[in-house]
Amino acid sequence: MLDIQVVRQQGSFQVDAAFQAQNAGITALFGLSGAGKTSVINMVAGLIRPDRGRIVVEDRVLFDSDRGIDQPPEKRSIGYIFQDGRLFPHLTVRGNLTYGRKLTSRSLRFIGLDQVVGLLGIEPLLDRRPAKLSGGEKQRVAIGRALLTSPRLLLMDEPLSSLDEPRKEEVLPFIGKLPRAFMIPILYVTHSVSEIQRLADTLVLMHAGKSIGAGDVNEMMSRIECQSIIRSDAVRAHTITGWRNCRDSSTS
Amino acid sequence: MMEAFSLTALEAEALRLSLWVSGWAVIGSLPAGIGVAWVLARLKFPGKVLLDGLVHLPLVLPPVVTGYTLLVLMGKNGPLGSLLQNTIGLSFSFNWKGAALASALMAFPLLVRAVRLSIEAVDQGLEAAARTLGARPLRVFFTVTLPLIMPGVLAGVILCFARSLGEFGATITFVSNIPGQTRTLPLALYTLTQVPSGEAAALRLCSISVVLALLALVASELLARHLDRRLKG
């Protein structure tokens, strides 16, 4: 269960997002670049502070401006997979993987190093440094590093956008397996329709800082295809590719 | 012939004292240097320009001014000097500790500058990532920021050490020129130039200083390369 309502003024740009996702699974935040998607997940992670609002993950209130609750990022038990990986260059892959694990209390751990290494296929990389990894390998290590903190929610900020097609195919299946394998919900930022079709359970549409619609992915997709929302400028802009993809997939 | 390469008692004493004083100058100023560099690199606050200026002041002031200021503030009867003497029994007047303090102060801007540049070059995204992995800010500093700025810290340490080895003006003003206490290499050299027959001995001290400075620079270059290789895998 994910319940997010956040408002934040950033210069002349206002982020104002509100959405809920009931089931563990992948919730995609979808919108153009500059729609405020990354700001929203940075607020969920606690890296930036909403001016007001409420962030609830699995019954835990992480932020509530009315009640003065604002947990620091290290207390939120949220794994964050950044667009650019952000592996620590001074540590080996093993050092990166265990960085957060060592800070997670034993009783909360639900996944082991061997399990993660096996799932992500990164065994041969363990003693290398991040500088010697390919983009796809880096993202897999980043996913492993976040998983090993035994998080209650995973945030992914366009984790595939820096990868070329074959590398995307290398990482995508792992992401798809995560929610069911570990019962961890994922909040997934993307502007790719094909990623949504392959991964998402719930879809949240964002435009110009606002969340303009949220719901079951199939329902939302059909709305994107046929409904008035398309005529709103929100989707018109992306959509040349977005819409075409939708149609292609429904006719094929 | 071999005698030409072995140090006289006077040279050995000056060399030992120089290394001792410079070593303590570095050790004593390093934590403060990293702290001030971090504050200047990361925080925004009113009066930041003033702090920045104050840190850099010894670089542009005549060293005699710095030395005299130290004498007035930190001497036996100075406000800070007497306070330290009475509370923790620490005295900087006319001993090697005073020489180390003067050296540290003179070298401080170089240390802060090197460390600050490297802190500014650290990707703050990595620190944010460490926070999301469960590390508090202090732990982030020691496990992510500090290892990443090590090359800069090292450069700062070497600069600070080398600058301390050469410290003259502030030292002689603050703690005078006392054999075994404050007569470091430059002061010993100066003393020799003041006596009629001291030229040959002065030249030897010159060579020692050159060799020492060169060793420090080569060592820092090698260490920097080693660290660089570690970061690049």
Short description:
Chain A is an alpha/beta fold.
Number of strands of chain B: 0
**What amount of the residues of chain B lies in strands?**
under 5%
Biggest β-sheet: strands ordered side by side in the sheet of chain A: 7-8-9-3-10-11
- What is the CATH homology-level superfamily of the domain at 1-22 and 31-77 and 191-252 in chain A? P-loop containing nucleotide triphosphate hydrolases
Order of helices and strands of chain B: HHHHHHHHHH
What's the CATH H-level homologous superfamily of chain B?
A: MetI-like
Quaternary form = heterodimer
Number of beta-strand segments of chain A: 11
Q: Helicity range of the residues of chain B? A: over 70%
As for the CATH topology of chain B, it is MetI-like fold
CATH second-level architecture of the domain at 1-22 and 31-77 and 191-252 in chain A: 3-Layer(aba) Sandwich
**Which secondary-structure class do the elements of chain A indicate?**
alpha/beta
Summed up, the helix count of chain B is: 10
Can you identify the CATH class of the domain at 1-22 and 31-77 and 191-252 in chain A? Answer: Alpha Beta
Task: Give an overview of the whole structure.
Chain A has about 250 residues and is α/β, with parallel strands linked by helices. Chain A has a domain at about 1-20 and about 30-75 and about 190-250: Rossmann fold. Helix content of chain A is about 40%, strand content about 25%. In chain A, the strands form two sheets. Chain A has a six-stranded mixed sheet, with helices on both faces. In chain A, helix 2 packs parallel to helix 4 and helix 7 packs across helix 9. Chain A is globular and about 45 Å long. Chain B is an all-alpha fold and about 230 residues long. Chain B has a single domain (about 10-230), classed as MetI-like fold (Orthogonal Bundle). Chain B is built from ten helices and no strands. The longest helix of chain B is centred in the N-terminal third of the chain and has 34 residues, at about 10-40. Chain B is globular, with a radius of gyration of 20 Å. The chains are: A alpha/beta (about 250), B mainly alpha (about 230). At the A-B interface, strand 7 of A face helix 6 and helix 7 of B.
